Amino acid sequence: MATETTSRDDFGEVSQLRGLLFEYLSLGASVVGILALALLLVYVTIDAFGLWNADDAWLLAYVAAFAFPAVGFLLYAADDPRVTRQSGLALVGGLVGFFALFRGLEALGMGVPRLSWPLAYIFGVLVPVTGYVGYAAYQRPAGAVGIGLLGRVAGGLGLAVAVTSVFVIADVYRWFLVFTLGIAPAAAIYAAGRVRASRPLTYLAVPVALLGAAAGFVLREFLVVYPRQWLIYALTLGVPVAVAVAALVWRRRGERSAAAVAVGLVAVVTTLGYVSGMVGLSRAAVVLLLLTVAVPVGLQIDRVLSHGRGSVGLLFPVVLVAGALAGTVLVDLLAATGPSPWLDWSYVTNPPSTTIADDAGLYPAIVGSIFIITIVALLSFALGVGTAVFLEDYTPDTGPLATVTRLIQINISNLAGVPSVVYGLLGLGLFVNLLGLGFGTVVVAAVTLSLLILPIVIISAQEAIRSVPDDMRQASYGLGATRWQTTKNVVLPESLPGILTGTILSLGRAIGETAPLIMIGAPTTVFAPPEGLLARTSAMPMQIYAWAALPQQDFRYGVVAAGVVTLLVVLIGLNATAILVRNRYERSDG
Amino acid sequence: MTADSTGTGTGASSRRDVLLAGAGLAGGALSGCLTRVDGDVGDGLSGSIAIAGSSTVFPLMSAMAEEFRREHPDVSIDISRTGSGGGFSNFFCVGDTDFNNASREIQPEEEELCASNRVEPVEIRVATDALTVIVNNEAGFVDCVTVEELQQIWGPDAVSRWSQVRDDWPDAEIQRYGAAETSGTFDYFSMAINGEEGAHTSDYQATERDNDIVTGVTGNQYAMGYFGFSYYYSNPEQVTALQVDHEGGGCVGPSLDAAAAGEYTPLSRPLFTYAAKDALAREPVAEFARFVVEQSGRQELVADAIGYVPLNDEQQAEQRDTVEKAIEEVQQ
After folding, report:
1. How far apart are CA A173 and CA B35, in angstroms?
2. Cα angle for residues A320, A325, A330 (degrees, 5° grid)
């Protein structure tokens, strides 16, 4: 290494003031931003769940019986004295601090509206501390197992809801026919082809799937007798799940247990589904819960037990459930008034109302939003990634085509800044009036929103593709790969995480957009979820916008806040799914 | 039965087929579990109705649609809030919607646009909106004001003391409570009283909550406020509604009858929905039009739940005739 010694005499004094100033200004800016956002979310949550109606005793009972044991378990799992000391200090200090602060404010006659000191404590200390401790615990086996188990339960529940809402939109009987005539035979043929290493057989799977699906669509119009809905779930979802589980078990424990597990699973699901109907439970719900929650949890428990590590973590859900029960008993004993939440089950399943706030629900709008955003995701991903790949890897650097490409590039950059209402006008003029796709329909809403986010998707995908080192492409070409093979096997897998990040952020924006939907005439209120691409549909932001303008206070605070929280939950659910997919790619290819 | 068959398979694929067959058999064995899926159940009325237009009429139509769906669950109704004009020009007169709500009468240009697309609007009056001016129950010195006096109190150059309006009124400061600038009530009140939208004093407590206005007025003997008729209608004892004298026509207080008869001027206005005549040929649309006329006279819905003045019997009969005639013409 060539080292060069320089004299430090002429270096002189350098002022650190500017650097420090910059650092603290940045810190201050981020703190103000995050605090403002957090405060807004806290108030929306308080309104949505009616928390300000709840007694202090009610809040404290649940904090003592539910939250403290949970944090305690996480502290134990984290097994780090520093974390324990800091969290303990924050928890106790926060309790005293918020109590003193609020009593002081009250004494001065400056009460904080709708925020009591236990609430401030919960949102100000308990939630962040739980996050911090949870993160610390996640690094160790016991905590990781506990959180992983919870994550699977939550993920499974989310999946069950998603499956149900998909079948609300997509006619479960048609799905049954398509599955039985198309998907299942095609999968069987493909598997057989793989086992016998027969190429023609694996290729045959595609036409079989297409023909079967088409036949299903046609048959749906004539056939009137079907298995009951829960049986359809058990067959069309249960059998694939059983096959997947069997494949997993096969790898771990061999052929015999795999077969036993698969058969057992189908048998247990059908039997429990059947029995649950006799005790008055919804069979479809039981089957779905078994498939989406019980199966992954069972697999996780099996893995933990067979590795023998961190099995204490399995206690975490038990702690939570016991805590919740204890809290309920405690609240009963204290006879404390609980909150009256706006965001409850009926809110998620009811049609909207503009007269009775208690009856108001968001159901059609939720389904509409999910429907729209799914199509937006497919469209903008396909078009955006396609364009980005073409612009980055398929266009020459010189010549007339390069000039055209540069023009396109400049246009895309500018389009990214066009206000959303202009895209709405475009949608109205082009898709509604010119193409006659119908105002306010699912397809028009989806295409308009896709166009809105397309420039951002393209630009971020381009960045991701550009960040793939050129050496990798050259190496691929050097091995004799074609451009298509290089794109498919090298460039796309390498840039996918980056592409997904951009797409996820754009989808988040699209699901909350209101202005373009207003312009294309999406209804603010519909009473039933959309039943097809050409059905008119509302979306969550539209319905929230409609309620926000009503004169009744119950609507403008409670119902609207519940809507905002629902929108955020769906948004976070979407993002979480996408991030999981992204992480999977990062892990397997990184 | 499925447990036995698992041992017999030799290859993975055949085992899978056996499993599939086994699961299918198990499903079959449990049946009686088949279900018949027929077409529509419900009362036979099905189809879709599209409504756009005024945001003032939106809550009323939305409530009516809600009620209608309870009787005819298979009819799908969607309502957009586009504003009266936006609804007419973008959707109704292009032939996209079946109804267009309007807080004013259709304008000549809009009628031309409709005519050029062969859309014939049928005007249906659905309710009357009446603004109510209120004072404290202790303010015995005033029970009737003229429009000019309201102008002095609420106009851009508003006076600050009661005695400046009328000599025999007390020499006390006027506390004003009114609608916030974002509200349609604000536009409408400033238009009706001061002849120009937005011409309104800025020296007042602006709020969108009727409740706050009532609290303010009940708390001060010399306070004055205004809001939609609904709150006063359901709580007549909390505050006193002033009578209004329009161009010397005599003092008229806000009441269902007076507003419906058109005597309570200038603070009452009719609200409409326009039906596309051709759309009335479709049974659900015709049925909904009849339903709207029926409901527009119902106090519990129009007044209690939404806060507009329902139509009186005579007006309702008139609307019924209009609708029936239009339906008859297109359904022949």
Report:
1. 11
2. 120
Minimal C-alpha gap between B90 and chain A (Å): 9
Contacts of A267 in chain B (CB under 8 A): 2, 26
Burial of A195 (0-12, 13-18, 19+ CB in 10 A): middle
Pick out chain A residues at pLDDT < 70: 1-11, 165, 168-169, 551, 587-590
The closest of A413, A414, A396 to A405, measured between CA atoms, is: A396
* Mutation target vs A (from B46, B48, B75, B76; most A CBs, 10 A cutoff): B76
Task: Tell me the per-residue pLDDT of B107-157, one tens digit each, with 9 for 90 and over.
Answer: 888 899 999 999 999 999 998 888 889 999 998 888 899 999 999 999 888
This model's pTM is above 0.80? no
Assembly ipTM: 0.70
**What single-letter amino acid sits at A556?**
R
In sequence order, the 6+-apart residues with CB closer than 8 A to the CB of A350 are A359, A360, A361, A362, A363
Neighbouring residues of B104: CB distance < 8 A, sequence distance ≥ 6: B84, B269, B272
**Chain B residue with Cα closest to A365:** B78
Which residues of chain B are within 8 Å of residue A259 when distances are taken between CB atoms?
A: 6, 15, 19
**Under 8 Å between Cβ of A318 and A149:** no
Give the 3-state secondary structure of residue B326. helix
User: B31 touching A, CB under 8 A?
Assistant: yes
Cβ pair B174, B155 in contact under 8 A:
no
DSSP string, A50-116: TGGGS-HHHHHHHIIIIIHHHHHHHHHHH--HHHHHHHHHHHHHHHHHHHHHHHHHHHTT-PPTT--
Supply the pLDDT for residue A26: 94
